[in-house]
Structure prediction request, 380 residues.
Amino acid sequence: MREFVDGNTAIARGALDAGCNFYAGYPITPATPILLYMARELPKVGGILIQGEDEIASIGMCIGASLAGARPLTATSGPGISLYSENIGLAIMAEAPMVIVDVQRMGPATGAATTGAQGDVQFVRWGTSGGYPIVALAPSTVPQCYTFTMKAFDIAERLRTPVFVLTDKELSSAMATVELKDFRKAEVGSRPMAPADEPFVPYRFETPESVPAFSPYGGPHVVRYTTSTHDEYGYLTKDPEKVNRLNQHLWAKIEARRDELEMADVDLDEGARVLFVSYGITAQAMSEAVEEARKSGEEVSSLTVYSLWPVPEKAILEAASGVGKIVVAELNHGQYLREVERVVYRHSAEAGVKAPKVVGLNKVDGTLISPSEFLQAMEA
Prediction:
């Protein structure tokens, strides 16, 4: 069976199937359809939706709901992500699980509200103070919008962290005919919970990569949350040892799980001298270009990045082995090109081998990259 559906609808369905029971957001093109779908469907499962007075209030309510036991979702676009920035840092510090959908549109500022782009890739990673690692998934098809949203909730709950789902106007708004079997459910775990009948320490963890447990909601424990650097009891501290322990933990609980969190699809062609790299909507054109090239006898490999953060370094190095040229295609001035260069050039320098040439295939005129432009980049 088939269905005619868009990415925004798939995201909303994925959230509901993941157990989302709270949504707060502010209308913004092209993410508004997610809010509207959740407004209609969330009350049917006993959930709560609030249209905040602005983006700052909306993500703040999601943090509060998360710390009170809810599974929150919010969705916005580039200008809203800019306003979310400070509270994203609070979610990282408070270790508040939530999923943040960024339906990217052309910037800067208000930009072009109905034009797709991929310009927020670096902002979601570095847009809040401290520079601590985050998780960001990038679906490239409508079914993946559904599945990756469920995966995002799983990661958020188990690791007590905000997780981003990055799409774009084209993927989220354009209708596609999809096989229902392609909407694959992902297992969604639960956040760690402490026993109700034992003493509770809100930020206690055994090792830096461990995830502290939540108190049972409505239970007997006193719980403290703060935006500031704190000890395991939630009290502010400037003790260097305690400060270091907390900050190493916020880093390690993501970095120590890179093998689990790194996601990519590698399509290798033995003997290929060119590797295409892309993500999101641009990866669809890449797949068509690879198919056309191979039909004409060309040898070419491709890598579709699904976890923008953490960067799938092992997959990049595997795909880059033996090629002479890497073409990184994206709808910006080369934001992910920087990551591919970093991984490939560092590895080549350490291994003492010649690095492949890494070039960008970029468009910022509001149109999509076509398969023919991939083929032109391969031949250049």
About this structure: The chain has a mean pLDDT of 96.
